[in-house]
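Hello,

Following up on my earlier ticket. Below are the two sequence lines again, exactly as submitted.
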Amino acid sequence: MRNFLLSSLLLALFSCSRPVTHSALEEKVMLRDSSLVSPFANGFSSYFFKVKSDIYGHYLSGLLLIKPIRKDDYRIVFTTEVGVTLFDFECSRDSFLVHYCIDKLNRKAVIRTLQKDFRLILMNDLEGKEAFITNSNSETATRVPNKKEEDIYFSNAKDGSTIRIEKNSKKGAKKVLVEMKQYERHFPHVIHIAHQNIQLTIDLTFIER
Amino acid sequence: MNILRIKPLLFFFVLLSLLQGSLKAQPSGFSVLKDTATLKSKLAIAAKETKTIQSDFVQEKNLSVLSEKIITKGNFYFKRENMLRWEYTDPFKYLIIMNKGKVLIKDDSRENKYDMQSNKMFQEINKMIVGSVQGKILTTGEFKYKFFQSDKYYLVELQPLAKNMKNFIKTIYIYFDKNYAVAKLNMEELSGDYTNITFANRKENVPIADEKFLIK
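Thanks for your patience. The regenerated structure is below:
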């Protein structure tokens, strides 16, 4: 009995320290322009959202404007409902600029978290990256390994729309889950971002203008 | 509109800005108003006669670098002495009520309540509101004032002196029509962006039920 318990414990520990083994059915590809299409590249001149977020029990709401400036380059402005700008970022393929940020949010950890979240939903840094694709009847999973993490984009097998995104550690620990729902005219009207290891959720509801 | 009417409005607007976490340069077509005493007097007289105000508003947030405007609409209610209700109705529902030392913010179904007494910022706002009721807003040390006039408007330019306000707001402009009613407000932010609020369908001294300002 003791040996069994010890063996089980060792197996569990050993399993946890191994990198995740991926499916042998994965197909390795180099992502091209049309491989994974960002919902934000569908030709709208700008995207306007009502934002509701919970940060460690604190509620913060406001309005988010995402404006394509050029290919893979977006300006992101967050304001309060009353109109005060809280931050103004520019997220391009290879850089992330802080044009403006109020003092309370202007912390490295906050900016880094927001940067990662925005990159995840904008999908503007994927072209040319190595990826591994798994197809099923209903969805396609595109796994994009990065240095310390990997992002998995799940898209509808029929129309290619991105329905879910997972950011995991290399060992498989879930870090961020994004759901893109209520597609209309090829754009998700609801985007839900839920961090798994910190108390942060962000809900974006698209507002027609 | 008079000081009593605009002060709660002004400070309420400032409060809204501070709670959440900007204004245009002086428009052309205005000259310096030399007789500020008459303006202040007229505003004070009108204040005494105002028991309630209700109005529609259109708020236009200008992101100048992006050439983008965010337009929202809603309703504003004021009742003596200092009950305020600022409600966005389009394109989303968002409500702010100030009443008897308490502040309610309701975003869709999510509510947050604040007690002015336990919050220094709210205390300052409350002090300003009381000061405004007594007709002292344009003489407080909280702002630096400039007065202008055109054919259509009297314009009061306010530059905040308090540090917490200066961190968010560069300048506030209040446009009064020639009946001393606030026609529009502009708020210029440090970021260079600005917000215009235009009032329309204004009604004075129409009965407004206290329930409009109820904070449970």
